[in-house]
Write a structure and sequence with these properties.
The chain is of the alpha/beta class. It is built from 8 helices and 7 strands, in the order E-H-E-H-E-H-E-H-E-H-E-H-H-H-E. The longest helix has 29 residues. The structure holds nicotinamide-adenine-dinucleotide.
């Protein structure tokens, strides 16, 4: 078991990629905190883990809210005694051209993706530094941490920003044994992506099939979606890595869509 007795706080873990990472980490012996805006779905996700014999709790939290994030992290430490791994994964998508975006939409995207990453990182680091047992921080970036696409200005901006944050946290955390890295997946079939397909079809005036083939998977080497399991395996590699050799990095897992 690669994560035996580690405590992992995973945001957005009631659905999609975060939920898969939670199951992967639990299979490797970790104790899991499902932190999600959707409290009911978080409760269900934690119950599903407990049903497999894992230890898991749910906390309802908006990652963009300072007081809620601090309280959620405190609750996790109170329950499990420590935080060893943070996966800052919660995210949403808004698909619109820049000239049609409202300032509110822009701010909402940056609040979830960037404020959320900062607030959860700060709360986790305070506990990690105080406990003196090191830790691993993972940010859910995207191929859009490295590339741009039409209609995704706030998302691309935020996902690029996570790489900067990870590099600083890698430098500051090193003397405390805390590592920070970014995973950059290509398209994965989750509710976040399923919602975009009809939206992009309408905005671009093409069929949903063409959104998948000619937009989403066009640049991959094999026309395949990245899978939840692919992303979870990379998340496991980063979380379980035993030294500071792997820190400040961003790894693309995208069927070759991006090769940087
Ligand atoms: P998803 O919609 O399946 O899950 C996202 C989860 O985040 C949901 O449970 C939602 O309730 C939660 N959430 C949303 N806003 C929140 C907030 N303010 N506070 C706390 N929780 C909140 O999406 P997913 O595809 O699993 O996406 C997870 C992450 O992976 C996101 O950061 C996304 O940008 C990133 N990502 C996804 C893909 C993809 O193709 N699906 C590709 C690259 C990166």
């Amino acid at each position: 078991m690669k994560l035996k007795d580690k405590v992992a706080f995973i945001t957005g873990a009631a659905s999609g990629i975060g939920r898969e990472i939670a199951h992967c980490y639990a299979r490797e012996g970790a104790r899991i905190v499902i932190a999600d805006l959707n409290g009911k779905a978080a409760d269900e996700a934690a119950a599903a883990l407990v049903a497999t014999g894992a230890q898991a709790i749910a906390v309802a939290v908006d990652v963009g809210d300072e007081a809620q994030v601090d309280a959620a992290m405190d609750r996790a430490v109170e329950h499990f005694g420590a935080i060893d791994i943070l996966v800052s994964n919660a995210g949403v998508q808004i698909v619109k051209p820049v000239d049609a975006l409202s300032f509110e939409e822009w701010k909402r995207m940056l609040a979830i993706h960037l404020d959320g990453a900062f607030l959860t990182t700060r709360a986790a680091l305070r506990h990690m530094y105080a406990a003196g047992r090191g830790g691993s921080i993972l940010y859910m970036g995207s191929v859009h941490s490295k590339e741009a696409s039409l209609l995704k200005a706030p998302y691309v901006t935020a996902k690029h920003g996570l790489i900067g944050l990870a590099k600083v946290v890698a430098k500051e955390g090193a003397s405390h044994g805390v590592r920070a890295n970014v995973i950059c997946p290509g398209f994965v079939r989750t509710p976040l992506v399923d919602k975009q397909i009809p939206e992009q079809a309408a905005t671009l005036g093409i069929s949903e099939e063409d959104v998948i083939r000619k937009v989403m998977l066009k640049e991959t080497v094999d026309g395949e979606f990245t899978t939840l399991e692919d992303v979870a395996q990379v998340a496991l590699l980063f979380a379980a890595f035993p030294s500071n050799a792997l820190t400040g990095q961003s790894l693309v897992v995208s069927h070759g869509w991006n090769m940087q």
